[in-house]
Amino acid sequence: MDYSTSLALLAPEILLAVSGLVLLLVAAWGGDKIARFNTIAAAVVLGGAFALVAPSVCAGASGPDAVAFGGQFRADAFAGLAKLMIFAASGAALVVAPRFFGRVGATRAEFPILVLFAVLGMSIMVSAADLITLYIGLELNSLAAYVLAAIRRDDERSAEAGLKYFVLGGLASGILLFGMSLTYGFAGTTNFGGIAVAVADGLSTGQLFGLTFVLAGLAFKISAAPFHMWTPDVYEGAPTPVTMFFASAPKVAAIALLARVSLEAFGSQSLAWQQIVIFAALLSIVIGALGAIGQQNVKRLLAYSSINNVGFILIGLASGTLAGASAMMVYLAIYVVMTIGSFVAVLLMRDGNGDQVESVSDLAGLSTTRPALAWCLMALMFSLAGIPPLFGFWGKFVVFQAAVEADLIALAAIGIAASVIGAFYYIKIVKVMFFDEAVDTVTGKSDTPHWALLAICALLISPLGYLLIGPLGNLADMAAASLAVAF
Amino acid sequence: MGGFPILSVMLAVPLVGAIACLFLDAKPARMVALAATLVNLALGVVLWANYDIGGAQWQFTEYSELFDGFAYALGIDGIALMLIMLSVFLMPICIGASWEAITKRVGEYMAAFLLMEVLMIGVFAAQDIFLFYIFFEAGLIPMYLIIGVWGGQNRIYAAYKFFLYTLLGSVLMLIAMLWMVNQAGTTYIPYLMEYDFPVEAQTWLWLAFFASFAVKMPMWPVHTWLPDAHVQAPTAGSVILAGVLLKLGGYGFIRFSLPMFPDASADFGWLVWGLSMVAVIVTSLIALVQADMKKLIAYSSVAHMAIVTVGLFAFNVQGLEGAMMVMLGHGLVSGALFLCVGIIYDRLHTREISRYGGLAINMPAYAVLFMLFTMAAVGLPGTSNFVGEFLALAGIYQANSWVAFVCTTGIILGAAYMLYLYRRIIFGEQKNADAAAMPDLTIREYLLLGPIAAAVLWMGIYPESFLAPMRADIEVLDARLAAAAPEGDAQLAIGEGAPAEEAHAEGEAH
Predict the structure, then answer these.
(1) For A281-328, what is each residue's pLDDT tens digit?
(2) Are A329 and A478 a contacting pair, CB within 8 Å?
(3) Using one digit for the tens of pLDDT, what is the confidence trace for B33-50?
């Protein structure tokens, strides 16, 4: 395979990288005054990258034609679908961010650029077919994310979030690198295909250790229990648009990466990692649900909710089948929409002075004072709880279907029973909004782009979303199938 | 009906009404809600009139591969028809009952009720197992709001309890459904009803479904959400809860547990019988000591539902028919009793039994109607509940005479607590001046209770109208259960008859 073909497969990444660098220069000379231009330009670039990826996803690209640079990079339908979600979620972050930063007086021209670099990192992550590529993508994304968390330098909480994220993220990268080095040492290659060949006859102890550490490092990135501790603090401290970004795009990337490592590199040894994934899944569901119960801050609560959701996504992976991988992608797509919707709703919570309010008690009686916001938030909460006929139910449905088809009935039964614990705090939010006396804190004017985004999310998770089951399921099936062809 | 998608229309009318109500003020919202429910009642009558008794098992079927993974499949048999009729009959009455009692957030209230109607009809009409589940589960949302927003003092606790209890029951059923679909390769309920699942798997599947339906039913000891939910819900909420929502459990047994897992149903018959016997005695005794009218009726509902479960698990035609008739009769009678409670609650704003007394003097018309419904709840011949209870108990007698014996005491206890309630409220001295000053029924209240009274008597005097559409379906179910049906304990041996006398023989020839 020659370089031109490889470069063509990398077109979206090249677009992201070049425009990120150009915009960086523009920002260096233009200063914060041109932040608006940068945001629009970054959004256009993301749109362009989306358009470049979309055809390969719809065509179900797979096999050797999608492999670039001698097997280091794979632009198949699985990576493509994850990229589409990443681009869309990042675009949403760009849409909501300027108003927010404008209000708090922290508009910075670097914000869209950092988002672009983070997206580039994620894009490389999901396409990685080699441990080195994987690490480069992961670190590029992480470094951009640390800065994003601390982008409000004058805000103590933001700085704290950035620092915490950096220290713990560094630790996770270390664990991951350790695992990768063990894997390389005992498999003799960093290529996923090569690793798959090396472990085909069973795992040696060293390989098993390598696998375990790699999974632990990745569990950090997706904030699966027991490596979830950083999530609530970072989510609470980071500026809300950044939190929204963290909760959506990087999760997609890290989960897709985890799926590729597990199913491609260690696909033949699924019994070895299934236990770990099952453990992390159930623990995430339970800890995410129990941890959220006492939370007073909405962002913290949503952080625990994301831990909880990761648990459900991991159930799809735990089934170890292609149907499970497809179910994960469907769940991820729905999860991204629900997460963006919830955080946009948080952004819309502003008091009379236009300042953000984040406490659950501020929502009291919202249904009488701001009915439209309350109804949208209620739909999102019931959807996150997985109550039909909202679309969030479908995500849970497909992962549990995959688990049942893989004969993991006990896992499915325990997992779904634990989801009832999670339902408690979701309906608590509904209770606060609908049953409690109005406190009328949320009176601030809201921005049109926020409303538009919330309306789109609410529409997608409404029962109308079920009409998308067919196309979405098709894309996810093709994406999962491209995983199988790879080795 | 020539391809007219009447079931879809019956789903669409209240749905459109619900969306409209959300954006309307109090007055137009009430009108829209009433109009939508009346249109649906009319459609229901058309449905019944066009139902071909003795025709195909599944009628008015609609099928569309609208979704990937499950189908939009609707269709009804006689059992579903009767339960749909019950729902559409009670809905306008519920709207009427809330006409004046609900003053805050009327639009949202009406929207929640109309949504409830959509979901109930959907549950009974769904022919796809996942479509059924979606309708079945979705009912949690409007009911949670109805109890929580418009309920009484302790409404938040009751709303939580209702939601989480029923959710925990149903999610396990979802896993069982996923397994069944994976095994049988179809989501179409009529096929699944004929599919023979492996006997050892049936046990687990049956238990998973039982977890859901027992909570919905509700069976002792998982009934505790019901009194809380009932007491705190507004009157119309209680009517819908008792009238239709409790029937979802029974419908689930008759549509899923019995035909899909006949062997497991027979194996677990003792469990159902045992829980039902306990329920009949215990909840009747609890009802006897209640000081709160709504709580009393709520506990009596649990006792009546226990008669339904023994009827269902009697594995014979009488038992099944009886269970269905009790469900229909109880839907009407308990709904009417909650309305009766609501009527005096609206006047005095207390459900405390001791605050009333001697209402026969100032509210004679109310006393008469309340008497009728009290007698119906007791199971007096000529009223709806007699037919059902008699059939159900006759059915269980063939299966196990001891269960029949214990459950029949429920009728005696029922008479005790209902008549005791009636005496304390309607008869006796007029202890409280404010209760003595309450006016008699208004025209609106006549319009609410009158139709139910007529239906109760109709069902009691000529039950054939209601039994006829269900007969064929119950026979199909009975045939499906025949192989697994447990042997009755009353082995009536036909002994050597006395030698027939000549005259007798001649007499018979005539």
Answers:
(1) 999 999 999 998 888 898 999 999 999 999 999 999 998 888 899 999
(2) no
(3) 999 999 999 999 998 998
**pLDDT at position B139:** 87
- Would you give the end-to-end CA distance of chain B in angstroms? 47
Asked if the Cβ–Cβ distance from A420 to B68 is below 8 Å, we say no
* Total-model pTM: 0.90
- On the question of pLDDT at A229 being above 50, the answer is yes
Contact B138 A416 (CB under 8 A): no
Q: Does B507 have pLDDT greater than 60?
A: no
Name the closest residue on chain B to residue A473, using Cα atoms. Answer: B68
In this predicted structure, the answer to whether residue A243 has a pLDDT above a threshold of 90 is yes
Burial level of A433, CB count in 10 A (0-12/13-18/19+)? buried
DSSP string for B267-333: HTHHHHHHHHHHHHHHHHHHHHT-SBHHHHHHHHHHHHHHHHHHHHTT-SHHHHHHHHHHHHHHHHH
- Closest approach of chain B CAs to the CA of A271, in angstroms? 22
Enumerate the residues of chain B whose CB falls inside 8 A of the CB of residue A470. 67-68
Whether the Cβ atoms of residue A172 and residue A214 lie closer than 8 Å to each other: no
Quick one: residue B104, left, alpha or beta (phi over 0 = left, psi -120 to 50 = alpha)?
beta
- How far apart, in whole angstroms, are the C-alpha atoms of residue B127 and residue B266? 25
Chain length of chain B: 510
pLDDT digits (tens, 9 = 90+) for B260-273: 888 888 888 889 89
For residues B256 and B69, what is the distance between their CA atoms, to the nearest angstrom? 20
Tell whether B19 lies on the interface with A, counting CB pairs under 8 A: no
DSSP B331-393: HHHHHHHHHHHHHHHHHH---BGGG---HHHH-HHHHHHHHHHHHHHHT-TTSHHHHHHHHHH
Average pLDDT on A344-353 reads 85
3-state secondary structure of B241: helix
DSSP for B36-94, written as a single string: HHHHHHHHHHHHHHH--TTS-SSEEEEEE--SSSS-EEEEE-HHHHHHHHHHHHHHHHH
* C-alpha radius of gyration, chain B, whole number: 23
Report d(CA A38, CA A43) in Å as an integer.
8
> Contacts of residue A368 in chain B, CB cutoff 8 Å?
105
B160 contact residues in A (CB cutoff 8 A): 424, 427, 431
> What count of Cα atoms within 13 Å lies in the side-chain half-sphere of residue B496?
2
Report the pLDDT value the prediction gives residue A487, as an integer from 0 to 100: 44
Q: Which residue of B175, B204, B205 to mutate against A (max A Cβ within 10 Å)?
A: B175
Q: Determine whether the interchain pair B168/A420 forms a contact, defined as Cβ–Cβ distance below 8 Å.
A: yes
8 Å CB contact of B68 and A387: no
The angle at the Cα of B273, spanning B267 to B279, to the nearest 5 degrees, equals 145
Residue type, position B386, single letter: F
Is the peptide bond preceding residue B218 cis, with omega within 30 degrees of 0?
A: yes
Question: B248 or A225: whose pLDDT is higher?
Answer: B248
Do B322 and B395 form a contact (C-beta atoms < 8 A)? yes
B245 band by pLDDT with thresholds 50, 70 and 90: confident
Per-residue confidence band for B2, with pLDDT thresholds at 50, 70 and 90: low
| Amino acid A137: pLDDT | 94
CB contacts of A424 in chain B (<8 Å) are 160, 164
Residues of A in contact with B66 (CB under 8 A): 466-467
Q: Distance between CA atoms of B238 and B97, rounded to whole angstroms?
A: 11
